[in-house]
Automatic annotation (TrEMBL), chains A, B, C, D:
Signal peptide span: none
The protein's name in its UniProt record: Gfo/Idh/MocA family oxidoreductase
Entry-linked PANTHER family: CONSERVED EXPRESSED OXIDOREDUCTASE (EUROFUNG), OXIDOREDUCTASE
Domain Gfo/Idh/MocA-like oxidoreductase N-terminal: 37-136
Domain (GFO/IDH/MocA-like oxidoreductase) ranges: 146-278
Entry-linked Pfam families: GFO_IDH_MocA, GFO_IDH_MocA_C3
Gene3D superfamilies reported for this sequence: Dihydrodipicolinate Reductase, domain 2, NAD(P)-binding Rossmann-like Domain
InterPro entries, alphabetized: Gfo/Idh/MocA-like_OxRdtase_N, Gfo/Idh/MocA_oxidoreduct, GFO_IDH_MocA-like_dom, NAD(P)-bd_dom_sf
Source organism: Danxiaibacter flavus
Amino acid sequence: MLNRKLRMGMIGGGKDAFIGAIHRFAANMDGLIELCCGALSINPEIAADSGKMLFLPEDRTYTNYEDMIKKESALPEDKRIDFVTIVTPNFAHFAPAMMALEHGFNVVIEKPITFTLDEAKQLQQKVNETGLTLCLTHTYSGYPMVKQARQMVKEGAIGKVRKIWVEYPQGWLSKLSEREGNAQAAWRTDPKKSGKSGCMGDIGTHAAHLAKYITGLNLTHICADLNILVEGRHLDDDGNVLLKYDNGAAGCLMASQVAAGEENALKIRIYGEKGGLEWAQQEPNTLLVKWLDQPTQIFRAGGGYSYLSPFATKNCRTPGGHPEGYLEAFGNIYHNFAQTLSAKLSNSEPTEEMLDFPRVEDGIFGMAFIDKVVESSKSDVKWTKFEI
Amino acid sequence: MLNRKLRMGMIGGGKDAFIGAIHRFAANMDGLIELCCGALSINPEIAADSGKMLFLPEDRTYTNYEDMIKKESALPEDKRIDFVTIVTPNFAHFAPAMMALEHGFNVVIEKPITFTLDEAKQLQQKVNETGLTLCLTHTYSGYPMVKQARQMVKEGAIGKVRKIWVEYPQGWLSKLSEREGNAQAAWRTDPKKSGKSGCMGDIGTHAAHLAKYITGLNLTHICADLNILVEGRHLDDDGNVLLKYDNGAAGCLMASQVAAGEENALKIRIYGEKGGLEWAQQEPNTLLVKWLDQPTQIFRAGGGYSYLSPFATKNCRTPGGHPEGYLEAFGNIYHNFAQTLSAKLSNSEPTEEMLDFPRVEDGIFGMAFIDKVVESSKSDVKWTKFEI
Amino acid sequence: MLNRKLRMGMIGGGKDAFIGAIHRFAANMDGLIELCCGALSINPEIAADSGKMLFLPEDRTYTNYEDMIKKESALPEDKRIDFVTIVTPNFAHFAPAMMALEHGFNVVIEKPITFTLDEAKQLQQKVNETGLTLCLTHTYSGYPMVKQARQMVKEGAIGKVRKIWVEYPQGWLSKLSEREGNAQAAWRTDPKKSGKSGCMGDIGTHAAHLAKYITGLNLTHICADLNILVEGRHLDDDGNVLLKYDNGAAGCLMASQVAAGEENALKIRIYGEKGGLEWAQQEPNTLLVKWLDQPTQIFRAGGGYSYLSPFATKNCRTPGGHPEGYLEAFGNIYHNFAQTLSAKLSNSEPTEEMLDFPRVEDGIFGMAFIDKVVESSKSDVKWTKFEI
Amino acid sequence: MLNRKLRMGMIGGGKDAFIGAIHRFAANMDGLIELCCGALSINPEIAADSGKMLFLPEDRTYTNYEDMIKKESALPEDKRIDFVTIVTPNFAHFAPAMMALEHGFNVVIEKPITFTLDEAKQLQQKVNETGLTLCLTHTYSGYPMVKQARQMVKEGAIGKVRKIWVEYPQGWLSKLSEREGNAQAAWRTDPKKSGKSGCMGDIGTHAAHLAKYITGLNLTHICADLNILVEGRHLDDDGNVLLKYDNGAAGCLMASQVAAGEENALKIRIYGEKGGLEWAQQEPNTLLVKWLDQPTQIFRAGGGYSYLSPFATKNCRTPGGHPEGYLEAFGNIYHNFAQTLSAKLSNSEPTEEMLDFPRVEDGIFGMAFIDKVVESSKSDVKWTKFEI
């Protein structure tokens, strides 16, 4: 493994941004990564202020990503960044990602990976060509109890999966906030910045990814009902999707951003022949494990539980009862990405555990999911075939 | 009001039956009703044993409902029963109900009301002709916090309803129990005894009724996906239904009897412009009331809470913190039915609170729901119009 | 077993009373008991109204218990009541109970059993002399999951008990309600009607009984701190008691009626060498079973769970997921008492399961508990020996 | 504020240590602090390995704290550390802390602050003399909802506090693990390394601090019952303490490390004249706010809730529904300490919000608490006066 911290440059994520700050907490946490430069805003003043706030040197505080990528790639190897993190709005993911890859930088990128499926496929090709690593921050797969669920399904603990319910209610778009000065709401409900779907692109993709990550099953058909429930909005703020999987399982994915009073209540339930699993993001350290003939068990995250899979335990930082949360889940993605990068940079093979973070394939799945739910929602035919 | 207990006769509900016992607990609880006779089983031995167990006189322990209805109607008015309770399997609801009405007896009947929609409509006509009262035991509408939710929606507390999620997972049919000697499973999965739908008829109807009871909204379109997830079964054991309502609201109804490890986890969430409501049958004394800009409130059942609607409070027997449950909810249906009957029998007008129990119209809605979800599930067209 | 319902007479419990109504729901529920007469109030008008409301015949609607006991004992055996239920305030328990026993009636009595320990001992002597049955309604021991906990401790599932925490917070006396027209508050905070302790007598005794019922352990020493936290009150409204048990276990009992915002939050936790048990009255159908090296298990009440003790299951009326509550727990006490009486009246031996209801010995324990906590609270010495 | 990261040196916390790693996560998280050197172990091999693992330069990887403090204080000001973090076992807190202060370094120190009260007082004197800052990591006061509770009590939201229940059950010492090779258990149950109390020193002090932090009340008397419940142990592994506060409030503090099956279940309930507050460490983002006449409210941590105190919000990193946990609470202590240091080093006055972290006075309170509970537990007199 590399005998130094990895060097990160950030694109987007200036001082008022939400997700940029989250990425920094996650990257800092484990002491494996240092932020070395940033193109934090296209507004020069915000860029400068943000750089100062983060103690970046002035000469590595850029105002656009092109400059940053060019200048960083000209720096000597022992100073130059190892990867860029892209935390701009969806429409501005592809260009910097492609340019970074072309200049030899690894990439961490917010989801959805790009604006269109085609762009995602181009990135995949570039990743394959270059051998570089692209990490997509589908945060929720970073939680240890999600990993425990995945492992249990894999090992057949609940038998063949028959039914999947995944839901993601939020309430923050219950008003037409995009017209009331809410910057987050503004770009996320704007088809030009967000893409062809609002709610499904923003959070439906998380739900779909979570189901795929845990069960490993592939969608064959979907039947989507996307809704605009707040008058005047331009993109779906709600939707339900019926699901069919390749092993015969049925499912339902529900997402809403107008579920008034809900925070960020992603939850998944998976039922198999022998038992069921239930995990809720807002109480992430608990995995309910249900059985046909025995009491439900409360599996708990934490180092030191012999009943947990090592795959889950390695993603815990604390013993049971010391709750970890969203930032730690995010941190796990960065941690595993950093381990992978460190291995590759020191010419060793990343282990399966290191490689446990979402990658370009997950991004392509997400973009296809968006395309297909939008297509299905417009269709009068019940079932739309799901293919990528 | 009548100065005596009401007299009940029971059809079905012999000593090994599940739901018959439930009806007796519910009818006994408030001291307003006495069980006077029964045709508890068509098996004479079981009928006799069951009668003894219930301290029924031998001469009012019948072995078939025809006998019972005939003989009871020949008794003097001060001895004769006031109503029959029908707790036989679905296919055996209609005939005794019709005969009872024809002989001047009021009727309490388990859901689904009949085997076919047409039968239900015949019962409706008879009820209208006779002026008698028919009560359908959709238990879950008997819970006080369900009534509180209904009242709050009605009064506009959460604004216009936008979204309804109602789910009903059970796990008890995860195995092919109908082939393993489980009598409950046997008739409920048998199209000849249960009807054209299994899971949707048995519990989906409860979920649909609950949503209707609380919101008062009417379905306009549905898109159903019914599944047989346990190989070898003859009726659906699982299903998801997308819903469209007449006010523009969208919804999703999920029911499953193969959700391994679940008990009887009926739950509803309703979101409006200003807030949301959440109620779960397994913790029935709590109603979560969610707001856009204020903390979620935990409304609690119980006499003495000034913040509750009197409509809810009248259906509580105990002060807060003394949990009431399923039997009390069932008891509320009997209580309100008994009050209605008592009023009518003493020639006074039942109040709106007395009339708060499911009636023949609810039965018709349920039968139409079964018909339409089966029709939709077979259709390749996405949306099936919902009409009765 | 007796081939008829048992006949009950009620002393106290007129139309505005709280606990009398509870006793009637509980006695009615299972169809084993019929209310035949009552001395429901010493106010003749309330007595008459209450009798009418309950459909009692006028000639068995009494205005004092002496009349009732005398006249009922003069009735022919097939009409005469089998037992009286006493639901008057504490100070008026002893006299009617003693008179009933002297006239050959069995007795159900609200807790605390009497006003003084000495009276309780006199009742015990009379019960022993007459062979009659006295049932004390310590409701909380009627819950199935409490019985499950008792059985598990008995069978050594959690090993030797080391630690007991039992708590009983209520908030309803947070104001000086006894001066604001609250009748319940008035007598319960009046030393002449309630006894020498308020909170500890009213609810502390329930907590102490619950701990004793589940663990079977005997107190050896206590250290009590009783408080009057609302100025102007005459009896303790709060208290904590340190406990020492005969097997070396340590404990803490906390009760308060000024825990603002709490309903009736009785909860017990018991820790042994191998595991722990947790039960909370407000979610009574769940028993948490904790282990040193395995996930916590959620044991659930309900017929049909093979993992439950038959001792618990026999006290369930419904399958899992159909919540039973306070009235059913109360009903279990009446049910088991009725079975015992039925067996004795038909000259058979009641089984251990029938005899599973609190009796006169539990009443004596409760009175001793009150005496000792009051004594300890006044003492400067840390530990007060607990003896009866 | 300072235009650079603060520089930290760590004493203790080598690669197998629990709490050292926690401190590093917490210090890293916000990007305000960099670890520059360490005396991570007295075992030279472990020290070297740990240094490498943390990417420390070899010449700043020390094997004892004396060396580290001496050599660091000789470095030029722009390289020298700003503070040391001491994460050694209790008996080894005082000497490095005193030496660090004497050499002009600020100090972060694990609780309990020292081995004896007298040592704590010496540290206090030195802190006062030097004007340096000492931060004591009573983690639980770092949670935003604890801060919300504190603020609500302060502002009188629940009226005068009457009752405090604070409990801290853990189960990890249910076996005699100190004899089975558990290093954590070994030193914590060894009077020579841990001090005169085990459970009360380790976690009782956290509970006592939490109650003090939220209510601001001062103890006047205590009555303690410390127990050794696992045979063969040398220090208390369990205890209950009755509490009296200077405003007349009563309380009870319960701590146990033999509560089999419990993780780290610190919980506090505070009741006042008008309402109550409840917070549990294992679900830290929720604060239950209870009222006499209104539904309980679920206050939730998260940026953007207008109903939260800014004092709480400033200690949140994420919006509601993105759970933060133990590491973030720890991080808040480091964050506020860092802000204070940054202000002082740039000659500005730290604000009240910056100064919101436990300090030397809290350490003295903790040591006095340990002394007094041990004294009380040995005494036959009920109440022991609490004074520092």
